[in-house]
Design a protein that fits this description.
The chain is mostly helical and about 325 residues long. Among the domains are: about 5-145, no CATH class; about 190-220, no CATH class. It has eleven helices and no strands. Helices cover about 70% and strands about 0% of the residues. It is elongated and about 145 Å long. The chain has helices spanning about 5-15, 20-30, 40-45, 50-60, 65-80, 85-115, 120-135, 135-145, 195-205, 215-220, 230-329.
């Protein structure tokens, strides 16, 4: 089977409005019948995405720059963690909160533009998926592919589980658009005396003859200083505080979502009760109308019979009058 053809068909299908997917998948499978049996069967097997996954796919198609910005943030966060940069981690955690909030708003907007509003619960699923994009490079590739069929989640420790998450298993489609990070790089700082010394040493090593023993080059290259135990502890503390702030923010959001959902449920309960009362009243009116209709039909039949009888009586009376008139003559 042509995996490229299947991926191309899938990209078109998962870029459609949510309610058009099933009919379009059937039409695509029918159109692929000329390519053998495997491709149409594979097209028919493409799963319909969840609403949250569909909203993320809409972002991959129509707002890819937002996803690219989140992926870039993830790279910078991993770099800060690798270098044990506590200050950068704190700043990036704040940036993560702001970018995720804006990205969820974008997901709401793009979903509405393409025919479907998303609830608070679905928006929460979208946020978890975008958070996984930031955390894990594999999740970033899956989200940016535009072929997501289910939402993702990350705990910050384990690798994000991508099993069954993408429509075409075994392929790694490139993101539709992968623009570079748009922010301007920071201005290069003047090299310190130690950095200048390292640079000079490196240049001198590069100019040494090829047959010179490499041991000398290794000895002349300064070894990077390992972070002290205090620095490591500070970095761990900064990460823990960032995680605490994030957990507190998520807890607040979940409380707000819970309150919003409870209010929505209460409103729907009231509406359902009112509709049931209206239905009961309508059924009672319908029952009365049917009884009245039955009575009216019976009365109409009785009136018709009476009218027919009166008509016959009138005819007989007229005939009698005519006979009596003829007798006198």
């Amino acid at each position: 089977m042509d995996d490229k053809a299947l991926t191309a068909i899938a990209l078109d299908l998962y870029a459609l409005p949510f309610d058009e997917f099933m009919a379009a998948r059937t039409a695509a499978a029918k159109a692929a019948t000329g390519s053998g049996k495997e491709l149409p069967a594979a097209v028919k097997a493409l799963p319909k995405p969840s609403v949250a996954a569909w909203a993320v796919n809409m972002m991959a198609v129509h707002e890819s720059a937002v996803l690219a910005q989140l992926a870039d943030l993830g790279q910078r966060m991993r770099a800060a963690q690798s270098s044990l940069d506590a200050r950068a981690l704190r700043e990036l955690a704040r940036e993560r909160r702001a970018l995720l909030s804006d990205a969820v708003d974008t997901a709401r907007s793009v979903a509405e533009r393409h025919g479907r509003a998303i609830s608070a619960t679905i928006a929460s699923d979208v946020e978890r998926t975008l958070g996984a994009l930031i955390t894990d490079e594999g999740a970033a590739a899956a989200v940016q592919s535009g072929l997501l069929v289910q939402t993702l989640s990350a705990d910050g420790v384990e690798t994000v589980d991508l099993d069954g998450a993408v429509a075409v298993p075994g392929t790694a489609p490139a993101p539709r658009v992968a623009p570079p990070h748009t922010s301007s790089p920071p201005a290069a700082a003047a090299p310190t005396q130690e950095e200048q010394k390292e640079r000079t040493t490196a240049e001198r090593t590069a100019r040494q003859p090829a047959d010179q023993p490499r041991l000398r080059a290794v000895r002349e290259t300064p070894r990077p200083a390992s972070p002290s135990a205090l620095e490591k502890a500070k970095t761990v503390l900064a990460g823990a505080k960032a995680a605490e702030e994030e957990a507190a923010r998520l807890a607040t959001e979940r409380r707000d979502q819970l309150a919003e959902t409870e209010e929505e449920v209460a409103g729907l309960t009231r509406e359902t009760r009112e509709l049931r009362e209206r239905l009961k009243a309508a059924e009672e009116r319908l029952d009365s109308a049917r009884k009245w209709l039955s009575t009216a039909v019976a009365e109409a039949k009785q009136a018709a019979r009476a009218a027919e009888k009166a008509q016959r009586s009138a005819v007989l009376a007229q005939e009698r009058v005519l006979r009596l008139g003829n007798t006198r003559d």
